Amino acid sequence: MGSILDRHDFHPTSLREYDIRGIIDETLGENDAYAIGRGFGTRVRRAGGTSVAVGYDGRHSSPSLEAALVRGLEDAGCEALRIGLGPTPMLYFAVHHLDAGGGVMITGSHNPPNYNGFKMMIGHGPFYGADITGIGTMAAAGDWESGTGSNRTVDVSQAYVDRMRVDVPARGYRIAWDTGNGAAGPIVERLTAVMPGEHHLLFTDVDGDFPNHHPDPTEEKNLEDLRRVVAEKGLDFGLAFDGDGDRIGAIDSTGRIIWGDQLLMILAEDVLRDVPGGTIIADVKASQALYDRVAELGGKPLMWKTGHSLIKAKMKETGAPLAGEMSGHIFFAHRYYGFDDAIYAAVRLIGAVDRSGTSLTELRGAMPAMVNTPELRFPCPESRKFAVIDEVLARLEASGANVNRTDGARVNTPDGWWLLRASNTQDVLVARAEAVSEAALERLVAAINEQLSASGLATLTGH
């Protein structure tokens, strides 16, 4: 890069609610990485910190972005603690383990291979919203600290694996693990090598081209390989991970998907044994069956906004031991640090199954049968998406509907519920509906279409 930048303008699409994200060499590049390092390092120093843990995922663009980010941190007067390639939760773990002033993870998560981005935490808390827009404001003004920092390589991978092992149950299971050529692969290899049971590993070699399937376990098509191995070998269940290891997917022995809210039902029962009356947080996309189950178990169900940073902040505020999202982010504050870690969630799921005295397949089979849509996404211009939700809320209020405004509009009716919200990370609106029967679901989808149509948007077809 050569000379030190004295100010910088980011591409307007790259600074998001929960992270910084863009297309390499189009909306995100090395100069951006330097400016993020310089700005974030400035924030850490002004908060009284001196060191920043830095990690990166397996994308081809990650090492060069990491090098530029480190230069920015050094020029802000910070020490960069470089933990190298690994999953995002290992970076979060490193911040706690090394008692760093903050952390930056270079990751494109589950986006296509030509994307990359940055997830951050300051102190032991999330860095999001106004913090991220503030990085842009500081860069535009050149409002940066200057100094001569340093960097050193720190290997936390063994400490991280050792921490996972603390919660591994003594009983072994026969499990398939699919890391989708993402950054979680090497950690899963090391962890399963020291776990009881029989483990079948898929695609654990890190490859930024994702040659086997896209690393997003919420898309059913990405679980086909996992289903095949579980069926062929007659395994107890299968686990899948996204590109940076902070989201989990699971299937039972028959290949049925256990969605994020269903995983939370199983984990909540286990956690509430230890924390009677605890608050369990889930996002607005979660099934009513989850909230009902938490209440039945004596817990306090709390519906909150979608977004890993927002959930983490709410957990701290409420002292919740456990939280989760439909997207597969699972957060344990019970016996852990409160951040989303899919590898740790996998270990805790195995433990929950063990303590239940039954199988994951039986736990899944005992859940109430709900009829629902998957997440329905459809394009909506950035400039319109929040305005559309305001229009929908105004119309619903005028009609006297039963509306929860936690995050967008979640409407309760005798048929069930439907949700319409603006995505914080993409130019889309997200809809979901859950009902007691197919006919009831059709009526809920029709209600969503009615609202979309009233705001001049294309309607949803089928589900």
From TrEMBL:
Residues 375-450 form the Alpha-D-phosphohexomutase C-terminal domain. Residues 15-131, 159-255, 259-366 form the Alpha-D-phosphohexomutase alpha/beta/alpha domain. Keywords: Isomerase, Magnesium, Metal-binding, Phosphoprotein. Its cofactor is Mg(2+). It comes from the Bacteria. Its EC number is 5.4.2.8. Belongs to the phosphohexose mutase family. This is Phosphomannomutase.
